[in-house]
Amino acid sequence: MGFAYSRLSRFNDAEEVYKEALNIKLTLPAYNDTSIANSYWCLAVIYYRQSKYEIALTMNRTVLELRIKSLGESHPSVAKSYYHLGLTYSKLSKYNEALDMHKNALHLRLHIGKENQVDVALSYEKLGVNYDHLCRYSDAISAFEKGLNILQKLYGNQHIKVATSYNSLGIVYCRLGQYGKAQDMYHKAMHILINLGGGNYAQIATICNNMGKIFNGQHKQDCYFHFNDTNSILLESHKSNVVDQRPKSYPIEIKSKSYGKSKLNRLDVS
């Protein structure tokens, strides 16, 4: 029932159900640490989704302790706990702590399973994000490239997760002022999203915004994109959000001055 409430974004109801379940498990000896950890885990997810990151952090620490106690240190669920602790620390802007958690998760995932798996690629991606926050750009590029190589082996070149990695690399190159490399990464990401179709307009708009930052850095006044798509593209500007209806291959004009104070955005496909 708690899961159903959570899916409906009825977080207070979900929290009440999960707390009741946890209290029952804590009072009855029949429930082991793994089961109790799962209840704490459900609560951590609820708090995280409500941006209550400090509480989520406390829950995730408890989950980690219980899982290590019941499952041992070399278990996929322990790696998952480290990973989600890293996510939570990052939301709190504690990037060094987040790095430590993601390194632990990556170490376990490499030790437990195969190198070419999605979880390993995700760990590299999150390492890259936190290196980026800490201005450790060479480390960020290395981590993103390792994640990208794994994703290409798993999915080929035409997958939204591959586009996400290209976009992440573009962000770092843009910060370094290497606009040619950044533009190449964004073009690859956009090409994948357009070929995939299926309504990836928000992700395409995100790359448009990031590309606009490049044009601003290069002091270009007018730049164009061509989309092989007949549907709506959501464009973000400094004044308002505008939906433009464009025919096939019509150039979408980006005024660089609109992006002077914009931030570089990541694709969220998780």
TrEMBL record:
TPR repeats span 79-112, 163-196
Annotated InterPro entries: TPR-like_helical_dom_sf (IPR011990), TPR_rpt (IPR019734)
Q: Which SMART domains match?
A: TPR
Keyword Repeat included in the entry's annotation: yes
Recorded superkingdom = Eukaryota
Coiled-coil regions, chain positions: none
Whether Repeat counts among this entry's keywords is yes
Keyword entries, A-Z: Repeat, TPR repeat
What is the official name of this protein in its record? Uncharacterized protein
Native source species: Trichoplax adhaerens
